[in-house]
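Bumping with the actual sequence this time:
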Amino acid sequence: MSTTFQNIYQDVLKRFGEDTSDTDLLSWVKSWINQRYKYVCGKKDWPFLTGPGVITTIAKYDTGTVDITEAGTTVTGTSTVWTKAMTGRKFKADAFETIFRIAKYTSTTSIELESTYNDDDVDDGDYEVFQDEYLCPENWRDILSIRDYRTGKELDKLSRRRFLGLHPVNNPSTSSPTEYCFFETRDVTKINIDPVSTILVSGELVTGGTSTAYGKIVKSTKSFIYVEIFYGTFSDGETLTDETGNTATVDEPDGYTEGNVGGMLRLVIYPAPYQAEKLDCDVVFKVYDMKAAEDEPLIPEEYRDILIFGACADLARNRGKLEESATFEALFMERTNRMAAELMASHKISPRIIPYGDRVSYA
């Protein structure tokens, strides 16, 4: 049986004979547990914080031909079958080098570009829709390495500055990716919504009822969503609808300023893939506060008593029992050191942290 968040905080309270129905005290104990949890996880590059991940690339699309008028943003297709999922991908007319982002899907034969098309008119020309940037899962903190799924060959890691210096324009190609960079992105917006009974579906596009904005849902709860916005902004009070048909109403509190939240990784790969394939990743996972009773710490089961001892030290100190607090603090440190000695001896991976110049500070 696994030790859950509930097991941990109930154990702490029982050791002191405290009333488990005291909500204020329970809140403090939960906070102490999470503080100890993040402290322990931040001390070393623990093996339990690393693990496998997968990025699946998207095949380029070039069926049919396109017409584009200079100084416009609309692309009209002939024999094309464009989809909503192409929103946010890159577009390039074969006759020119300029690459645009698709801001909006209108129909299977019509899309809108994010910026004005200033090259010469295209009449029944060839084109490509492709993707070279991928938003990583929310719980990825760092990327250690990436390998081609089929060959096992490791891609070369470049800093973002070096990557952009070598590949300022990432044209679609006929080969598999060989290089990559990653960085924290601010292109994900948190939108507060009225509490809903049916949660909007993560991974689907969400549209606004009045603003006609588009975005991809990164994470969804009953009270907010994280959205990677491709076109426009969502307004307070408007109805949002995902592709499944679930709806929610934007409900921003007074004083809220529409803006972006950070902390997610964006992966950029070169050359831009021409077919769908898997990239195996070794990643470092983020450590989140435990909230639900059934949440479990990433710390291995046999060492989770570390959190009990740490929170007991905090509770004893809060109660003025300094000698007892010191005893629990000693147990906390002893167990932490033992875990380090037993787990780190054979753990040789050192995370490649995001270069300082590529980090963004979020207040």
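The tokens above came from a reply further down the thread. The radius of gyration is 25 Å.
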